[in-house]
Amino acid sequence: MAITYELIKQCSKTGARVGRLYTPHGVFDTPIFMPVGTQATVKAMSPDELKEMGAGIILSNTYHLYLRPGHDLVAEAGGLHKFMQWDRGILTDSGGFQVFSLGPLRKITEEGVTFRSHIDGSKHFLSPEKATEVQMALGADIIMAFDECVPYPADHEYARQSTQRTTRWAERCKKAHTRKDQALFGIVQGGMYKDLRTMSVQDLIALDFSGYAIGGLSVGEPKPLMYEMLDHTVPLLPSNKPRYLMGVGTPDCLLEGVMYGIDMFDCVFPTRVARNGTVMTSRGRLVIKNAEFSRDFRPIDPECGCYTCRNFSRAYIRHLLKTEEIFGLRLTTTHNLHFLLNFMKEMRKAILDDRFLAFREEFWTHYRK
Ligand SMILES: [Zn+2]
């Protein structure tokens, strides 16, 4: 096994749990948030800065790296870790999500997906075997099976056929995957249908993956529906394997996801909104570009210990963003990532002390959506 999961503490009242993930590039405590480095870089951050914030694993996108600079080039450079000088964990997605998001630019068959590059319109083909080959060349610690993310809304028949194909594709990924120093995760689909989620979990467990992701959530459905799906799906997953909820990264969703027993999360949200001038705090979001902050000389979040909050005021950061200074983006990105990584750390502490529900209650008292 390339990675192993050790359960450290199970919350006595909820599904929340603290665990430890052993990977070829370090040992990380879960639940964990993975910053997204689409193009082999977490935008605006150096690897050292990420480490200083306590980032353990980052996520990189197979679709983007396959198109540019190409997986062969990354392999030639010695793999993704060496290429980008990141010696901690990396997870790559399968490229499926991006390819399916291309809409009219792609065509699905049982064999795989034909698509046109969003960059130059060139024609490509991604199959379970190809997605696995690309991810083996990139060399992340954890790679994902090639799946179709069932869109929302989708009727039961479409969701069933798509989910069954995802399982067949997962089996092909497993056959194609030969790197022993890499873990392959299966992805649970099933749309918003409990019977299909159950079917998907059972079929994937039979294939025995190193971990299980829950895909097809946070795709536009109302949050209560997402929570209903988590409540149904997570308990079906084996407790001795990591569980990863894909594409979720707001504090409220992280908190609820942890409560249902999720161990890993990723999302472009904190870094993307940072570059648009929105910052996260324990009280909710601030649009730091707004005029109300022009003479606000307090830090973004007085309770935050990040480099940005220790040194700079809202007024200064607003000024940098208004004048389109690069440093402004670095400051907001630093804060948002530090904030979320620290939030995960506090949740782990609360679970270890068996006071997760009290922690959750306190969060909701202060947090404004
Ligand atoms: Zn901060």
UniProtKB/TrEMBL annotation:
Zn(2+) binds at C304, C306, C309, H335. Gene3D superfamilies: Queuine tRNA-ribosyltransferase-like. Binds 1 zinc ion per subunit. Residues 14-368 form the tRNA-guanine(15) transglycosylase-like domain. GO terms for biological process: tRNA queuosine(34) biosynthetic process. Its cofactor is Zn(2+). GO terms for molecular function: metal ion binding; tRNA-guanosine(34) queuine transglycosylase activity. GO terms for cellular component: cytosol. InterPro entries: ArchSynthase1/Queuine_TRR, TGT, TGT-like_sf, tRNA_ribo_trans-like. The keyword Transferase applies. The keyword Coiled coil does not apply. The active site is at D93, D266. It catalyses: 7-aminomethyl-7-carbaguanine + guanosine(34) in tRNA = 7-aminomethyl-7-carbaguanosine(34) in tRNA + guanine. Catalyzes the base-exchange of a guanine (G) residue with the queuine precursor 7-aminomethyl-7-deazaguanine (PreQ1) at position 34 (anticodon wobble position) in tRNAs with GU(N) anticodons (tRNA-Asp, -Asn, -His and -Tyr). Catalysis occurs through a double-displacement mechanism. The nucleophile active site attacks the C1' of nucleotide 34 to detach the guanine base from the RNA, forming a covalent enzyme-RNA intermediate. The proton acceptor active site deprotonates the incoming PreQ1, allowing a nucleophilic attack on the C1' of the ribose to form the product. Belongs to the queuine tRNA-ribosyltransferase family. Homodimer. Within each dimer, one monomer is responsible for RNA recognition and catalysis, while the other monomer binds to the replacement base PreQ1. This is Queuine tRNA-ribosyltransferase.
